[in-house]
Amino acid sequence: MRGAELSKQIYPPAPDRLPIARREPRLRTAYSSYPPEWDTPLVKLERESEQHGCTVYAKLELVNPTGVHKDRESSAVIADMKKKGFRALACASSGNAAISVSAFAYMNGFESHVFVGSEIPQEKLTLVKMFHPVLHTVEGDYLDAVEALKKFIAGRKVYNANAGFCEAKLVGNSYIGMEVAREAKPSYVICPTNNGTHFVGVGLGVKKVGVSVCMVAAIAPDTEIAHSIKGYYHLEEPKISAMIDQTGGSFVKLTDDELKRATVSLAQQGIVAEPASAASVAALSHLRLQEQDVVCCTITGSGLKYPALTASMLKKWTAFSSREVLPKNNS
Ligand SMILES: Cc1ncc(COP(=O)(O)O)c(C=O)c1O
């Protein structure tokens, strides 16, 4: 049997789909250009929809160039730098933001200065070094790194690309909000939250489209596994609280057990997310959802970047063959 005939038998054509060549391309702009209208996938989470008796979507920001929503921010940062005549940027970060800004600086031939706390894990440092930023290791934690950054840029022509000081980052996130608002008209949008740049920016985007939504900030200040949201540094306050007040939204504080369960549930549906970005899904159980609700959970970062962490999240469930069954006590 010839290859084409054989493949027709194995893969019968799906009647409700157009041939690939006739579909509209989903990607509207190249990643290196502005604005970041990337139209990332919005997929229905069948399991969570059934469990919560409403429609639950995941907005897959982990498909961006460096596997994180922060690439939308970085695209806007570069556009703002060009407008204002900067050729160097600085950002304090323990991981995803540093990787993203240095990747976008690399694309544009700009210099990036990354400030990290001295306790950054080796797995993350390897990724941070990938795009060759100038690395400033600071004794202490994230907030010490932010202080060191502020001292460094004083008197230098270096763009402050840090959360809490950079309007462009909010603008980058607003594109995510506009996309979910146009595509799903959600009643709730849930965002994994640390400094709140993602949360506030997404909320601004949803509001710009004119959709009325409850904005929910999923936080985990004391987590040991969701490093990207550990601490809840809220550098965007008071904008975070204002967004919650204006939209009738809420904060949801999560445990590591809830984050693990959400990470595993997503992985079992083909979405390999880092535990921090599964916070939006973990928060669902804390809301009083009704049948008519449409909820969009932003899935902000890829678990593929942190293989040791991801493997440790998934290993306890490898023995379970049924997709429906998760152990009740998984600590
Ligand atoms: C994967 C991921 N999700 C969510 C967040 C939280 O974003 P924000 O600090 O804007 O609240 C971060 C921040 O580093 C992140 O890396």
Number of domains: 2
**What is the CATH topology descriptor of the largest domain?**
Rossmann fold
CATH architecture of the largest domain: 3-Layer(aba) Sandwich
Bound ligands: pyridoxal-5'-phosphate
Structure characterization notes:
This protein has 331 residues and is α/β, with parallel strands linked by helices. The chain folds into two domains: 23-67 and 173-317, 3-Layer(aba) Sandwich (Rossmann fold), CATH 3.40.50; 70-160, Rossmann fold (3-Layer(aba) Sandwich). It is 38% helix and 15% strand. The protein is built from twelve helices and ten strands. It has helices spanning 3-10, 46-52, 70-84, 96-108, 122-128, 142-153, 167-184, 197-209, 239-247, 256-268, 279-282, 307-314; strands at residues 42-44, 55-60, 88-92, 111-117, 134-138, 159-160, 188-192, 214-219, 250-253, 294-299. The strands form two sheets. The protein has a six-stranded mixed sheet, sandwiched between helices. Strands 5-4-3-6 form a four-stranded parallel sheet, with helices on both faces. Helix 9 links the parallel strand 8 (214-219) and strand 9 (250-253). Helix 3 packs across helix 4 (96-108) and helix 7 crosses helix 8. Bound molecules: pyridoxal-5'-phosphate. Pyridoxal-5'-phosphate binds next to helix 4 and helix 8.
